[in-house]
Design a protein that fits this description.
The protein is an alpha/beta fold and about 140 residues long. The protein has helices at about 15-35, 80-90, 110-125; strands at about 45, 60-65, 70, 75, 100-105, 125-130. The protein has a domain at about 45-130: Nucleotidyltransferase, domain 5 (2-Layer Sandwich). The chain has a six-stranded mixed β-sheet with strand order 1-6-5-2-3-4, covered by helices on one side.
Amino acid sequence: MALRTRNKVNPNFSMSSMTDIVFLLLIFFMVTSTLIAPTALKLLLPKSSNQVSTEKPIITVSITSDLQFAVLDKPVNFNDLENTLRREIGKINNPEEAPTISVHADKSVPIDEVVKVMNIAKRNKYKLILATSPE
């Protein structure tokens, strides 16, 4: 009596499951890499279509077209800007949340000057709103 196995092993290899796994890994790495922003500044940019930000700024920094800085409408030299912001925020500081600064820059101001204020806010962990005018 000869015993034979009914199930034969199929010697062919199907790559479809392997390609599915590779594509899933590719999608996973693409999604997770876009979520990482190591040098991003946290900005709250209000829409210019008459919407108001949910954050209430406690300090305003103004930059005029001739690159003059002002904190709460008082002229300030750029070198003293960070210390002035710390002093003004120290008077009003709410310890449970980060203070919010509103930057009012003239449209002719170079972006470098606005980024300098953004860097001060980032160093001190302040929230920043870039004020815009309605369309």
